[in-house]
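Exercise 7. Given the encoded structure of a 198-residue chain, write a plausible sequence.
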C-alpha cells in the first residue's frame, strides 16, 4: 500500500498544491495528514474541499491549530476525508489509528488511556500506522538544539505496540526527518509530503 503523508501545511496553497500533485503522480492509495493544515482554522473548509477532490481517502487528525469540533465538522461535509482522532480504520490487514495531541505536552494521560483501549483491539498480523500531531520523545523528529521536546507517552506506546509507521509533525525544524524506535519507522513528512510503502 502506498501512503502519502504530510503535516503542518498551515494554510499554504503551495504546499497543498504539491501534496495534490504528488498524490496523483505517485498514484497513492491513501493520504494521511498529521494535523495543522490551517492557521487557527482559517479557510479550513476550503482546504478540506481541496484535499477531498483528490478522490482518495485522506485520513486526518487536528493539530494544535484546529479544534476537534471544527475538523470533524469540516470532514463530515466531504466524501473522502476520514476524521481519525481517537479512531481506527481497518483496511484488510492495514490498521490506521490517530490521536491529535496538542504537541506541547511531554506526557499525555488521555493518550495513554486511549492507547490501552486501542492496543486491545489490534491483532498480531495487523500492519499498524500511527498518526499523531506530536512527535515521540527522544528521536530526530523532536530534537531542537540540545533538548528533546516530544511526547513520552507516544514513545512508550510505540515501544509496546508493533507499529510499521508512525507519522507526526508539529516541530517544523525537523520536517523530513526519519528515525527508528525499535522496529518502527517514525517520520515527520513535512508540509510537501512524502510517500511511504507499507
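Solution.
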Amino acid at each position: 500500500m502506498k501512503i502519502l503523508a504530510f503535516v503542518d501545511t498551515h494554510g499554504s496553497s503551495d504546499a497543498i498544491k504539491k501534496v495534490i500533485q504528488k498524490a496523483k503522480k505517485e498514484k497513492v492509495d491513501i493520504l494521511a495528514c498529521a494535523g495543522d493544515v490551517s492557521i487557527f482554522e482559517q479557510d479550513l473548509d476550503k482546504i478540506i474541499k481541496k484535499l477531498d477532490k483528490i478522490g482518495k481517502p485522506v485520513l486526518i487528525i487536528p493539530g494544535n491549530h484546529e479544534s476537534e469540533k471544527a475538523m470533524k465538522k469540516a470532514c463530515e461535509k466531504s466524501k473522502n476525508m476520514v476524521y481519525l482522532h481517537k479512531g481506527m480504520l481497518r483496511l484488510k490487514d492495514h490498521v490506521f489509528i490517530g490521536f491529535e495531541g496538542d504537541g506541547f505536552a511531554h506526557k499525555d494521560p488521555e493518550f495513554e488511556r486511549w492507547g490501552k483501549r486501542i492496543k486491545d483491539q489490534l491483532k498480531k498480523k495487523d500492519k499498524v500506522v500511527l498518526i499523531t500531531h506530536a512527535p515521540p520523545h527522544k528521536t530526530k523528529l523532536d530534537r531542537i538544539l540540545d533538548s528533546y521536546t516530544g511526547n513520552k507517552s507516544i514513545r512508550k506506546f510505540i515501544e509496546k505496540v508493533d507499529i510499521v509507521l508512525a507519522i507526526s509533525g508539529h516541530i517544523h525544524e525537523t520536517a523530513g526527518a526519519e528515525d527508528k524506535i525499535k522496529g518502527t519507522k517514525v517520520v515527520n513528512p513535512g508540509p510537501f509530503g512524502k510517500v511511504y510503502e507499507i
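Remark. The chain is about 25% helix and 25% strand. Students should compare their own answers with the one above.
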